C-alpha cells in the first residue's frame, strides 16, 4: 500500500498572487464592508446632489466653501474618534468651542494681544479644559458622559458670561485662517493656481509612497496584507479623488484654503499617532478589552487623561477656526458641534462599543455630513428637514455597523 501511495509536498507559503486572489479579495471586502461602504456612500451622495443641483455642487468655489464651512467638524471628529475608540463620549466640545472662541476674541479686541499669540493661548486653554475634564474621568472615576454633560452646561454658561452678545472687530489676518487662501506664489498654469497644483502633486506622491512602503513593510515581516487587487484599486481611487479635488481648487477663486492645510496636517499627525505609536495602540486596546488592557500593563488612567487633554486641544483649534470663520465671537457658537463630531465618527466606521475606528474614516463621515448640508442648502431645503436627514443617516450608519457585526459573528 505504501509503495502505491505518493504524497505531494505542500506548496510554499507565499502571498496569494493576483490570479488566485478572487476568494481572498471577496473575503477581504466582506470583512471591510463598513469602510468601503462609507466611501461608496460618499461617492453616491456626491453624484446624486451633482445631478439634483444641475452640477452646482462641484463648482470650484463650492468645493473651497465646503472645506471652509466644515473645517470645525473635521478637527473635532479627529479627537472624537480617539474618545469613542477608548469607550467614552464627549458632549462638551460645542460649549468649549464657544468658551474658548470668546476668550480668543476678547484677547484680540479688548486686550490688544497679537492674534497669533491669542491663538496659541486659546489652544493652551483648551488643553487646560481637557485637563479639568480628564482629571474627573481618569482619576476620580466619574463616567465621561456625566463629566462632559456637566462641562457642556458649565462652559456654555461661561461663554454667555464672557461674551455677552457678540465680540467683533477682529483683524483680517486672523479671519483669513478660515476664510483665506494660500497666496499664489507660483503664478498660474492657464487658469489654474500653480501652488495648488504643486500641493496636489506632492499629496499624491506622498500617499503613493507611504502606502507602498507600508505594504512592503508588512510583507517583509510576514504580516497580513490586503489583496493586491484591493490595494491597487483603493490607491487608484484615492489618487483620482485627490487629483480631481486639486483641479477644482486650482480653478477656484482663491486656490488652496488655508484651513485645508491645517486640517491636512492634523489628519496626517493623528493617523500616525493612532497607527504607529504606543499611545494609539493603548487606546485601541482599552476600547477593545479594558480588563485585558489593564492586565497587560496599560496605564489606563494616564491614557484616559491624555485622551481628554487632546480633545481639549483640538477643541481649542476648532474654536479658533470657528471664530475666524465668523469674524466674531458669539455666545451661541458651537451649537450641536458635539453632535456633528459624534455623527461624523460613527458614520465613518467608529464602533459604538469602542475599539474600532480610524481618523480617515471620521474624515469621510464629516464630508458626508458636509455634502448633505451643502447639497440640501443649494436645493433650498428647509433647515429642519436638513437636520432630519442627518439624523436618519446617523441611525442608518449605526444600524449598518451593528448588522455587519452580527453577520461577521
UniProtKB/TrEMBL annotation:
Function description: Part of the binding-protein-dependent transport system for D-xylose. Probably responsible for the translocation of the substrate across the membrane.
PANTHER family documented for this protein: ABC TRANSPORTER PERMEASE PROTEIN YPHD-RELATED-RELATED, XYLOSE TRANSPORT SYSTEM PERMEASE PROTEIN XYLH
Main location: membrane
Coiled coil segments of this chain: none
Keyword Nucleotidyltransferase: no
Region feature (Disordered): 1-22
Membrane topology: Multi-pass membrane protein
Residue spans crossing the bilayer: 33-51, 63-84, 91-109, 115-141, 153-174, 194-210, 231-250, 256-273, 303-321, 384-403
Subcellular location: Cell membrane
Protein name: Xylose transport system permease protein XylH
Keyword annotations: Cell inner membrane, Cell membrane, Membrane, Sugar transport, Transmembrane, Transmembrane helix, Transport
Amino acid at each position: 500500500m505504501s509503495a502505491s501511495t505518493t504524497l505531494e509536498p505542500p506548496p510554499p507559503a507565499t502571498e496569494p498572487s493576483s490570479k488566485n486572489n478572487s476568494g481572498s479579495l471577496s473575503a477581504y471586502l466582506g470583512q471591510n464592508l463598513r469602510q468601503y461602504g462609507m466611501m461608496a456612500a460618499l461617492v453616491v451622495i456626491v453624484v446624486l446632489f451633482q445631478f439634483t443641483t444641475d452640477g452646482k455642487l462641484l463648482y470650484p468655489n463650492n468645493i473651497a466653501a465646503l472645506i471652509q464651512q466644515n473645517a470645525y467638524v473635521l478637527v473635532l471628529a479627529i479627537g472624537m474618534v480617539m474618545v469613542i475608540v477608548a469607550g467614552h463620549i464627549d458632549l462638551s466640545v460645542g460649549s468649549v468651542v464657544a468658551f474658548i472662541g470668546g476668550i480668543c476674541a476678547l484677547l484680540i479686541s479688548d486686550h490688544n494681544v497679537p492674534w497669533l499669540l491669542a491663538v496659541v493661548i486659546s489652544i493652551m486653554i483648551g488643553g487646560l479644559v481637557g485637563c479639568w475634564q480628564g482629571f474627573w474621568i481618569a482619576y476620580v472615576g466619574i463616567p465621561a458622559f456625566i463629566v462632559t454633560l456637566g462641562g457642556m452646561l458649565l462652559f456654555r454658561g461661561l461663554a454667555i458670561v464672557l461674551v455677552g452678545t457678540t465680540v467683533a472687530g477682529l483683524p483680517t489676518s486672523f479671519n483669513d485662517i478660515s476664510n483665506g487662501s494660500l497666496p499664489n506664489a507660483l503664478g498660474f498654469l492657464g487658469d489654474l493656481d500653480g501652488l495648488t497644483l504643486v500641493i496636489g502633486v506632492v499629496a499624491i506622491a506622498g500617499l503613493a509612497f507611504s502606502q507602498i512602503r507600508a505594504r512592503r513593510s508588512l510583507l517583509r515581516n510576514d504580516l497580513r496584507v490586503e489583496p493586491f487587487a484591493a490595494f491597487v484599486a483603493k490607491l487608484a481611487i484615492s489618487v483620482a479623488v485627490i487629483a480631481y479635488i486639486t483641479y477644482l481648487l486650482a480653478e477656484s477663486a482663491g486656490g488652496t484654503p488655508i484651513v485645508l492645510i491645517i486640517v491636512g496636517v492634523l489628519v496626517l499627525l493623528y493617523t500616525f499617532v493612532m497607527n504607529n505609536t504606543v499611545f494609539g495602540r493603548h487606546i485601541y486596546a482599552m476600547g477593545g478589552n479594558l480588563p485585558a488592557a489593564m492586565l497587560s500593563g496599560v496605564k489606563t488612567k494616564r491614557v484616559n487623561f491624555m485622551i481628554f487633554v487632546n480633545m481639549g486641544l483640538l477643541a481649542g483649534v476648532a474654536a479658533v477656526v470657528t471664530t475666524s470663520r465668523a469674524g466674531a465671537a458669539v455666545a451661541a457658537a458651537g451649537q450641536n458641534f458635539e453632535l456633528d463630531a459624534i455623527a461624523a465618527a460613527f458614520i465613518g466606521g467608529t464602533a459604538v462599543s469602542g475599539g474600532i475606528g480610524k481618523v480617515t474614516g471620521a474624515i469621510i463621515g464629516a464630508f458626508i455630513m458636509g455634502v448633505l448640508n451643502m447639497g440640501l442648502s443649494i436645493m433650498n431645503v428647509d433647515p429642519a428637514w436638513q437636520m432630519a436627514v442627518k439624523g436618519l443617516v446617523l441611525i442608518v450608519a449605526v444600524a449598518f455597523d451593528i448588522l455587519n457585526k452580527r453577520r461577521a459573528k
